[in-house]
Amino acid sequence: MEPKPARVRILDAAHELMLTVGLARATTKEIARAAGCSEAALYKYFDSKEELFVRVLTERLPRLTPLLASLAAEPGQGTLEGNLTEIARQAALFYEQSFPIGASLYAETQLKRRHDDALRRLGAGPHRPIEDLDAYLRAEQALGRVRADADTFAAANLLLGACAQRAFAYDMTATGERPPVDAFAARLAKTLLGGISVAPTRA
Question: Which regions of the protein are recorded as binding DNA (predicted)?
C-alpha cells in the first residue's frame, strides 16, 4: 500500500491527538512525532497549530462550513425544512466531535486568548457558522421563503446554539447518551420554522 502523503498523516495525527489529549496539550512537536515527520516538516504545510486546528475542523469533522456556503450561494434549492434539518444534523455532529477537542482551552485563559487571536487572524472562529447560517437565511428571506420580519441572526443562534448544547449537556449525564441526531435535527428544524417560515411546515 502506498504511504499517505505527509500532509494527510499530519492531519490524521493532529485529529487523533486533539481528540485524546485536547487542543491545549496537543503540541506541534507531538503531532509531528505521531505523523512520523519532523516539526520542521509540519511547518511546511501549516503555519501554526491554530491553522492545523482549523484544517482539522474543516477536513476531518462533519462538513458544516461547506454546506452553509453552498446553500447561501444557491438559495431556493430544496425545501427550507429539509435544508435546515440537514444543517442541524451536520451542526450537531460537528459540535459533538469538536467539543472534546476545544474543551481544554477553557481551563487556560491566556492560552485561549492567544488561540482566539490566532483564529481571528485566520478569519475563523466559532462565530463563523452563525454568520454563515444568518447569510443563508437572509438569502432565503430575499426570495420570500423566510418571513420578512424574521430575525435571521437570532434564528441562526437558536439553531446552532441548540446543536452545541446537545454536545455539551449530554456529556454531563450519567449515561452520556445524546438524543439521536436525525430525530433531534428534524424536531429542531421544524420548531424553528414555526417562527420564521412563510409556509406551514409538514405535519
Answer: 27-46
Cell numbers standing for residue 163: 446543536
3-state per-residue secondary structure call for the chain? CCCCCHHHHHHHHHHHHHHHHCCCCCCHHHHHHHHCCCHHHHHHHCCCHHHHHHHHHHHCCCCHHHHHHHHHHCCCCCCHHHHHHHHHHHHHHHHHHHHHHHHHHHHCHHHHHHHHHHHHHCCCCCCHHHHHHHHHHHHHHHCCCECCCCCHHHHHHHHHHHHHHHHHHCCCCCCCCCCCHHHHHHHHHHHHHHHHECCCCCC
Predicted confidence (pLDDT) per residue in 48-87, tens digit: 888 888 888 878 877 888 899 999 999 999 999 999 999 9
Report d(CA 143, CA 51) in Å as an integer: 36
Determine the angle formed by the axes of helices 80-102 and 49-59, rounding to 10 degrees: 140
> Could you give the CA distance from residue 165 to residue 5 in angstroms, rounded to a whole number?
36
